[in-house]
């Protein structure tokens, strides 16, 4: 190969590498590792309060849906914490394997009068699919709009065939009248298990079992070493993992039997990131396992910086209340999980 040809080939390779490095959200790449995810991944266009996401494959659209709590961050004229109440579950959609998301609307959730009806507050959905194709939602419901936190909250079971219309609401009897943030997973033997936050028990994590997603048996406390909420439990690479929101980032626990849990040192997303709207600790997450890879979807309050809750900011306006969804890939290092939140996240959510 003569010198000129070698120079031309070298220049072409450099140009190709530069182009790959400059790809933006949704761009195709030569790598099967996926497209670069947008940052922030999603921002709600109505109230700007997206949080607590759950990611589900849509049964007919060939896309991914995100159902999320939508806090009323723009409603600054509301007293107390009523802006966190009165919420409806928002929906966003991705047609590029999770790299970018667009707003769809709100879920059509029918709740009876004793649960608050149309005035009920809807928080933190979790969604699983049964063998018959029916989708089951486990939704935290507060029976109204309140200015403080001192009111009952229940986990309510609903069903759907299209992920948009949810009916047959039924409150699940669990350990107390103050339970939130269900996470439901199927065990290898077919039993369903729910983890949730029991606020009456120092905000510890409890669990319950069901053979059919309808009848639940309370099993008691499973994580008590620290307070936390928003548990997410999943099986990946030969172990069970639980991630909880401890308001100092996300705590990680590991188990071989989904009963006995060991906490790893350090929290994920405790140190603020450097990306757009990512300069704050990460909160209440979902995890999607696709093949050998797993992605962590979380939310941030960009205007609060490193301190969740905005302590010491002296203000409580839209900038402090608004929240966005972000994503990063989970990395296994022995018996622990870590993330590289400041690195570009290549995502490729694939159908089962």
Describe the structure.
The structure is a single chain. The protein has 352 residues and is mostly beta strands. The protein is 7% helix and 41% strand. It has a single domain (37-347), classed as Glycosyl hydrolase domain, family 43 (Tachylectin-2, Chain A). It has two helices and 23 strands. It starts with a helix and ends in a 5-residue tail after the last strand. Mean pLDDT is 91; it is low at 3-30.
List the helices and strands and how they pair.
Elements: H1 3-21, E1 35-36, E2 50-57, E3 64-70, E4 90-94, E5 102-106, E6 108-109, E7 121-129, E8 135-142, E9 154-160, E10 165-171, E11 179-186, E12 192-198, E13 204-210, E14 217-223, E15 229-236, E16 239-245, E17 250-255, E18 262-263, E19 283-290, E20 293-300, H2 318-321, E21 324-333, E22 336-339, E23 346-347
Parallel strand pairs: 6-10
Antiparallel strand pairs: 1-23, 2-3, 3-4, 4-5, 7-8, 8-9, 9-10, 11-12, 12-13, 13-14, 15-16, 16-17, 17-18, 19-20, 20-21, 21-22
């Amino acid at each position: 190969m003569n010198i000129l040809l070698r120079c031309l080939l070298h220049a072409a390779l450099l140009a190709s590498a530069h182009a790959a490095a400059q790809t933006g959200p949704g761009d195709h790449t030569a790598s099967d590792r996926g497209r670069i995810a947008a940052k922030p991944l999603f921002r709600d266009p109505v109230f700007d309060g997206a949080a607590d996401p759950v990611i589900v494959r849509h049964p007919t659209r060939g896309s991914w849906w995100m159902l999320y709590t939508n806090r009323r961050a723009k409603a600054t004229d509301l007293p107390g914490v009523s802006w966190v109440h009165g919420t409806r579950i928002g929906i966003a959609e991705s047609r590029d394997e999770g790299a970018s998301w667009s707003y769809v609307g709100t879920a059509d959730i029918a709740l009876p009068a004793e649960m608050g009806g149309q005035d009920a507050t809807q928080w933190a959905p979790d969604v699983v699919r049964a063998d018959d194709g029916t989708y089951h939602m486990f939704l935290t419901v507060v029976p109204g709009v309140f200015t403080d936190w001192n009111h009952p909250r229940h986990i309510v079971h609903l069903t759907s065939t299209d992920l948009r219309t949810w009916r047959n609401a039924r409150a699940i009897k669990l350990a107390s009248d103050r339970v939130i943030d269900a996470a439901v997973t199927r065990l290898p033997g077919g039993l369903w298990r729910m983890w949730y936050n029991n606020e009456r028990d120092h905000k510890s994590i409890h669990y319950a079992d069901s053979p059919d997603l309808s009848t639940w048996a309370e099993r008691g406390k499973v994580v008590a070493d620290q307070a936390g909420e928003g548990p997410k439990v999943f099986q990946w690479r030969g172990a069970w993992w639980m991630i909880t929101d401890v308001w100092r980032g996300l705590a990680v626990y590991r188990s071989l039997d989904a009963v006995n849990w060991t906490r790893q040192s350090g929290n994920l997303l405790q140190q603020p990131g450097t990306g757009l709207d990512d300069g704050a600790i990460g909160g209440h997450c979902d995890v999607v396992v696709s093949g050998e890879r797993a992605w962590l979807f979380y939310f941030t309050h960009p205007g609060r910086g490193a301190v969740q809750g905005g302590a010491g900011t002296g203000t409580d306006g839209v900038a402090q209340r608004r929240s966005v969804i972000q994503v990063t890939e989970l990395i296994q290092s022995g018996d622990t999980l870590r993330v590289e939140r400041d690195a570009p996240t290549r995502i490729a959510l694939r159908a089962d």
